[in-house]
Amino acid sequence: MDTIEERKLWRLENIINVLSYLSIELNIAASEVKQLGRGIGAVAVEVKKFMLVFERDVFNRLKFENVPFSGVEERMAELGSMLRLLSMNALLEAKRLNHSKAYILCDELRKIGESVQNILEISKDRKNLTMLNPDRTFPEPLPFVVFKIGGTYWAESMNSVMEAVIITDDTLKDYPFGSGKMRHHVVVRGIKMPVINLHSEMKEKIKPGKESRLIILNLGHILYGHTSSDLFFGLIADEIEYCGFLQKAVQEFATDHKVPVDYVRYTWSAKDATLMFFNWDNIINEREIRDYLQIENKG
């Protein structure tokens, strides 16, 4: 094993130690809020399971079985993607609890997931979301999820996002009664909901891959600012780029020529990307989802 691989192995061992620490701290954070912390407690259990699998499938094979890094690259990429998905849903749970310590711990999970993938090779597609004009931002940070649809990056408030799930060709079912942008429907945790397909609006084809995700959003929060509504819908994303705090800046920039202008409320520019913010009024409305639920209930 050469010097570079030894350094990589040391970084992997450090990641395992940090995951063990985070699992313990998340358990402590869950106990602090008692019954309300069951979601965070479940995250702690999943982190512990992930650490054991990562140690078994990657670290032990490299250190004790003398398997080269090329022999575990695919598994590392898969586990890194899984950890990023786990961290995003953990961040959403911490946000719902308004628990700052849990939020910080879950954000560390996201960073570790990216580190696992970056040990292999830093993705050339990974974007730098540093503000170009930080003096034009509002002082308070706001939590957002940034994801890719086609060739465009979109941002949505984490307050509106309920969950992110893996998506495959078998996940989506065509919805022949769909109105507006509703092209499919899906069942998530026993709940039927319509799915918005913006790819078709941008003349793009859906190609579910390892990083593809179905973002579950609550229309009640988007429309009324609270999540007590029972109106949910899915949005197909090719990849989750980032989840966490951004400094919001309303800056007017030209949208991508493939993106319908009326879908964009405003945009702002980062170092490597222009982020689009949804104008949901022109994409989906309450009547469409209620019509969908009525048709499904009759069926």
Keyword list:
7 helices, 299 residues, Ferritin, 42% helix, 11 strands, single chain, alpha+beta, five-stranded mixed β-sheet, 2 domains, six-stranded mixed β-sheet
What Rg is obtained from the alpha carbons, in whole angstroms? 20 Å
The domain tally reads: 2
- The run of helices and strands is HHHHEEEEEEHEHEEEEH
| N-to-C CA distance | 61 Å
Strand order of the largest sheet: 3-7-8-6-5-4
Shape: globular
User: Sheet with the most strands?
Assistant: 6 strands, mixed
Oligomeric form: single chain
Query: What is the structural class?
Result: alpha+beta
Secondary structure tally, helices: 7
Question: Can you give a write-up of this model?
Answer:
- This protein is of the alpha+beta class.
- The chain folds into 2 domains: 118 residues, Ferritin, CATH 1.20.1260; 165 residues, no CATH class.
- Helix content is 42%, strand content 23%.
- It contains 7 helices and 11 strands.
- Strands 3-7-8-6-5-4 form a 6-stranded mixed β-sheet. A 5-stranded mixed β-sheet has the order 9-1-2-11-10, with helices on one face.
- Strand 10 and strand 11 form a beta hairpin.
- Helix 1 packs antiparallel against helix 4, helix 2 runs antiparallel to helix 3 and helix 3 packs antiparallel against helix 4.
- The radius of gyration is 20 Å and the shape is globular.
- It starts with a helix and ends with a helix.
